[in-house]
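Example 3.2
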Amino acid sequence: MPDPAPSPALKPALFLDRDGVLNEDEGYVHRWENFRWIPGARAVVAAFNRAGWLVIVVTNQSGVGRGYYTEADMHSLHARMSEELAEAGAKIDAFYFCPQHPDAAEAVYRHPDPPDRKPNPGMILRALADWPIDRERSLLVGDKSSDIEAADRAGVRALRFHGGDLSTFLAGHGLLPTELSPSSRTA
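Structure, written as C-alpha cells:
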C-alpha cells in the first residue's frame, strides 16, 4: 500500500483587516477613486510574501449587506488592490469578507449574529481550515477591538494598529521580516 501524500508544510499567516490597516478608512470604501493605501502597507505585504508567509485579508463588509454597494463592486476593488500589489512584487493570498449584518437591507445578508462578522472568528477559522497555516506563528493586524477579539477567539496573536506607517509599526514591534543577506542565502 503506498504511503499517503505528505501534508503541505505549515506556514505562518499575516491576517490583515482591510479598512484602516491596508487602506485609509473613509467609510465604506468600495470605489477605486476613493481608495488610498496606508503608508507602508504594500511594503509590509511584500516583506511577508518574501519571508514565506501567507497574507490573508479578513474584512467586515457590511456596506454590501446595507445596500451601499454590491459584492461585485467589492471584488472589483480587491482586484485593483491585487494589481497594484503585483506591481510592487506583492500579493494577497486570499480575501475573506463578511457582508452579513443584523441590520442588512436585504434578507439574504441579514443575520442576528453573523459567525464571520468580527468580533466573531469565522473568517479566520475558515482561512485556518482552507490553508496550511501555522496558527501559533501567525499574526493578525487590525485597527478595531473587534479585530483583536476575533483573533483572540481564533487563537491567533494580534496587534492593534492605530494609524501611521504600517511598516514602521510592525518594525517597532520587531515583527517586520527582514531581507536575508546574500551570504545567508547560500547557507
